[in-house]
Amino acid sequence: MSLYKAAAVSYLNTKPLIYGFQQGQLQEQLTLSFDYPSLVARQLLSNQVDIGLVPVAVLPRLKEWYIISNYCIGCNGPVASVCLFSDVPIEQVTRVLLDYQSRTSVRLAKILLKEYWKINPVLVEGKEDFRDHITGTTAGLVIGDRAFQQRKVSAYSYDLGMAWLQHTGLPFVFATWVSNKPLPTAFTNLFDSTTAIGLQHLPAIAAAQQYSLYDLYQYYTQNISYQLDDEKRKGMNLFLKKIEEYGW
Fold first, then answer.
1. pLDDT tens digits, residue range 33-44?
2. Inter-axis angle of helices 15-22 and 185-197, nearest 10
3. Are 60 and 180 found together in one domain?
4. Coil, strand, or helix at residue 90?
5. Based on the number of CB atoms within 10 Å of its own CB, is 156 exposed (0-12), middle (13-18) or buried (19 or more)?
6. Are the C-beta atoms of 148 and 11 separated by less than 8 Å?
7. Which domain holds residue 133?
8. R_g of the chain computed on alpha carbons
9. By C-alpha distance, which of 235, 85, 106, 101 is closest to 173?
10. Dihedrals φ, ψ of 156, to 5°?
């Protein structure tokens, strides 16, 4: 029986971070399940899992939390898969439908709408079919793999990773590996090295997806930035400070 349970986001951008686990590393110590970001966060909050690759906006809601890896889902410029889409320029948008799958992206969008684009549209929580209603002056925040689909549909696309960099001068962290309790150092070291394995196999991981909507090797090497370095930690801390100040 595994010692620990972990949950991760089931998007294309996590494939490099879970590759090592899927190759059998840590299989005697860890079981790994998948879901979309807000549900992974819920599992970590309710102690259904010990470790989660979770949206960083969930961190203030945890009684205790520990970042256990030097790798994350981050960006230092256009991320490509977290965007506001619309039929009209951003200044003409009157309503924004918010993707239900990630608290972090929603809060990032709220910050940028207020501070960067300086507009005040009506914000509406999107349902499962919300992309069907991105039309006229109603925009939509779409994240993950579905954003690649939406790029083929909407006339205007506003990349939140790029907007954050232009607004703050810092990279952004969407999700990182977090435990809700202290874990042994020997285990977290193994966990971190296992997470890193996929970054050595990016061409093969990209090719294995057989994905036609976007160049995944470009996505993994130019859009997503996986190292949780000091600049990303600064960006993450600024984001957490802002959502605390706004009460989000």
1. 998 888 899 999
2. 110
3. yes
4. helix
5. middle
6. no
7. 82-168
8. 18
9. 235
10. -125, 140
- Tokens 């992974």, located at residue: 40
Q: What is the pLDDT of residues 175-193, one digit of tens each?
A: 999 999 999 999 999 999 9
Greatest C-alpha distance within the chain: 56
DSSP-derived secondary structure for 144-157:
THHHHHHTTT-SEE
Q: 4 has which bridge partners?
A: 30
User: How far apart (Å, rounded) are the C-alpha atoms in residues 174 and 99?
Assistant: 14
User: Of the candidates 168, 183, 206, which is a domain's last residue?
Assistant: 168
Of 119, 135, 168, the position where a domain reaches its end is 168
- How are strands ordered across the β-sheet holding 4-9? 30-35, 4-9, 51-55, 172-179, 66-75, 225-227
The pTM assigned to this predicted structure is: 0.94
Q: How confident is the model at residue 210 (pLDDT cuts 50, 70, 90)?
A: confident
Residue in 187, 181, 104 with CA at minimum distance from that of residue 144:
104
CA 226 to chain centre: 11
Give the Cα separation of 25 and 5 in Å (integer): 14
Q: 93 with 157, same domain?
A: yes
Torsions phi, psi for 224 (to 5 deg): -80, 135
Task: Say how far apart CA 195 and CA 154 lie, in whole Å.
Answer: 35
Answer for the pair 230, 237: CB distance below 8 angstroms, yes or no.
no
